[in-house]
Each structure stands twice: as C-alpha cells, then as structure tokens.
What does this fold into?
Amino acid sequence: MTDKSWALGLTGSIGMGKSTTARMFADAGIRVWDADAAVHRLYGKGGAAVGPIGTVYPEAVVDGAVSRDVLKRIIADDDAALGRIEALVHPLVAADRQAFLRAATADLVVFDVPLLFETGSQDAFDSVLVVTVPLDIQKDRVLARPDMTDAHFKSILKRQMPDAEKRKRADHVIETLTLDAARADVEALIAELRAKLAHA
It folds into this structure.
C-alpha cells in the first residue's frame, strides 16, 4: 500500500472467471492493470522485451515484434526455453506493474495477474483475491473454448498451482458461479477495502 492506494492482486486458475471479475472491478470505476496486456505491450514493436528475447531467440522476433506463435514452438521443442523466457520477461512485467501503481491516483487499484502465486508475486500486493468455482464447472468452461482439448486443459492445470492451495493462500475468495453473486461479492470487497483505507 502506498499513502494513497490499496493494491489488490487478482488471480485464479484457468476458467475460474478472473477476467470477468476484473471487468466487474472496472465497471465499478476501479483501475485495473492487466498482466497479459502488459506482456502484449512488451512484445509489440518497440516493446522492452523485443531486444532481450531477440538476443536469445532471434527467430522469435518477426517484423520488429515478438511472435507468440514462434515462442510457443520454441517452448514446445525445448524444455528449458520457458524458464529462460520468463527470466527475461517477468522483471519487465514487474517494472510495468510498479509504474502503474506509482501513477495511480485512486484509493484502490486491482492487478489482474494469472500466475500471481506461481511467480511469487503475492508480496507485491496489500492483499490477494482468488476467484474460484468447482472443478467440474471449471472444466466445462474451459472445454467450451475454441480449439481447447482435454489434454491441453490438463497440461495447463499442471503448470498452475492447485486451486485449493491458491484459496488457502488468499486473503479474499470469490466464487463465480453466477454473475449476480460475484458482482455483489466484488462490491462488498470494494467497500471493505475502502473502509480499511479510511482507517489506515
């Protein structure tokens, strides 16, 4: 927390409703920083990740930007590639996040970070919110996505911390079974955090 803002980390495994919950915060007038959007900026033309990745994997830079498709092929062919890429990109993402927080003028800001616990980022936030649903609903949501297979879903889950462990580590948990219930919980959490700030 700065003297003016409460930094709320928002995370959850694939299919848990994290993006929808982030939009609920935005709809309530809360500024939201999106880790995936930050990576897109870093990979785009002139982005800070283009040079470092191009040094290690020149073939991944196409027309002055990092090609995610090429990176996926590199990662599929080389077990060590993901770790190398993350070592280059994660510090740049963290710097982007810190710049956003320093520029924040609101009392509450939300940071949408898919791999928050997996990257050890939890200490960067004043509190962490995990969104969740039961496994069967999570699976149904994910398999309804275009080009998603059961095997791909399982491979993604292997790379993510188990939902139960995320919930155990969280300061706040919201179940996203229905939009109305999730929105009510988001509004209640906003009120709770603003009350904490008022008494800080």
About this structure: Strands lie at 6-11, 31-34, 61-62, 65-66, 108-112, 127-132, 172-175. The CA atoms of residues 16 and 134 lie 9 Å apart. The chain has a mean pLDDT of 92. The longest strand covers residues 6-11.
